[in-house]
Each structure stands twice: as structure tokens, then as C-alpha cells.
Amino acid sequence: MEYNGSAIVAMKGKNCVAIATDKRLGQRQMTIDTDFEKVFPITERTYIGLAGLATDVKTLHDRLRMRVNLYKHREERVIEPNTFANLVSHMLYEHRFGSYFVQPVIAGLNKNDQPFICSMDTIGCIDLGGNFIVSGTAAENLYGTCESLWEPDLEPEELFETISQALLNAVDRDAMSGWGAVVRIITPSGIITRDLKSRMD
User: Fold this and answer.
1) Facing residues of 108 across strands?
2) Against a cut of 0.85, is the pTM above it?
3) Helices H, strands E: what count in the chain?
4) φ, ψ for residue 106, nearest 5 deg
5) Does residue 184 contact residue 20 with C-beta atoms inside 8 Å?
């Protein structure tokens, strides 16, 4: 799980949710890419972040996109975040004997504009967490910064500031992640995406 390095965090706000990730792709301590995508849109209000082995990240994202499209055609409706979480969990458990080396983080708003976040281990055990959820090589650092900075009922701009500070402070203390970050705030009116600069050493 530490071969490529990553840092992903999702955080709840007041009728909004945020998911943020670093941009580094590494081969252990050697940096390969500084703009590697780890968070993907599933619907207009649901995103998934995949921390782990880069090849499995790409493979799982492609298969999830196919499953979500099949769900949309069969059910004739957009998949909800909690339903999508169960779909991901089922897919990972199907491959438990040759598992994908990824730890997903899912963030989204349901039809009642309530925030939903969760993460999973490599065989799909769902962790609904609480107010924030973390994954990747910087997870221990992220737990500390999120515990210190998170507050209840954060508005979108406050949530952006909180998740940004938590992620940047965590990756500064982890050699396997960093090189900038991408933050996405999911609100009932749309998605706000912002790039962050960080230390590049």
C-alpha cells in the first residue's frame, strides 16, 4: 500500500462535503509524477478517492464506471452515495483472494442534501467513520490534523479552509505524499474544485 504513496481525506460540513487528495505518484521514495489523479467523479454529487497501487486505482475506476452505468440503465435513476458504497464494497469482496491494493474513500450528498462519507479496507469492509475519514500513507498524520481543526456545521468556505490546512499539514510530515493538492467541495448547488500549492521537496 505504500509503494506509490497517497493522502486522501473526506470531511463533512453543513449540507456540504469535501474530499481532498495530494498529487504525487511515486515509486517508493522516487517521484514519478506530480499531477496524478486519485479522486474521480461517479455522479454529479458523489466522488471516490482511491489510495493505493496506481495500476489498481486505474483498473478499479474503470470497472466502477462500468458498474455505475449499468446501474443507471437498469434502475433508471442516479446512484446514491450509500448505495454506491455498498457496490464498491461488494466489488472489493468479490476479489478478496486476489484483492485490489486500494483503500477507497467515498464522499457525496444524498437526495436530501445530507453529507455521506465512508472508507474501506482492501476487501470492502465499510468504515462510516464520523465527521471525517482518511486514507493513504499520511493517514496517521491526517487523523491528528483533522481532530485538531474540524468543527461542527462548517459552511463550504470554512470547510475548504479546514480540509486544506489539515491535508497540507499532514503531507508536510509524510515523504510518500504531497507535491500539491486538489480539493473538491460538493454542495447542493454544484462542485467547487481548487488546486493547492505545497512544498515540493
Assistant:
1) 46, 116
2) yes
3) 4, 12
4) -115, 135
5) yes
Tell me the residue type at 33: D
Q: pLDDT at position 126, please?
A: 95
- Write the Ramachandran bin of 131: left for phi over 0, alpha for psi from -120 to 50, otherwise beta: alpha
b/e per residue 137-171 (b: at least 16 CB within 10 A): bbbebbbebbeebbeeebebeebbebbbebbbbbb
- The Cβ-side half-sphere exposure at 34, using a 13 Å CA radius, reads 11
Task: Evaluate if residue 152 carries a pLDDT over 70.
Answer: yes
Residue with cell 486522501: 8
Please choose, from the candidates 43, 51, 44, the residue with its C-alpha nearest in 3D space to the C-alpha of residue 22. 51
Do residues 5 and 176 touch, judged by C-beta distance below 8 A? Answer: yes
Q: Alpha-carbon distance 129 to 135, whole Å?
A: 12
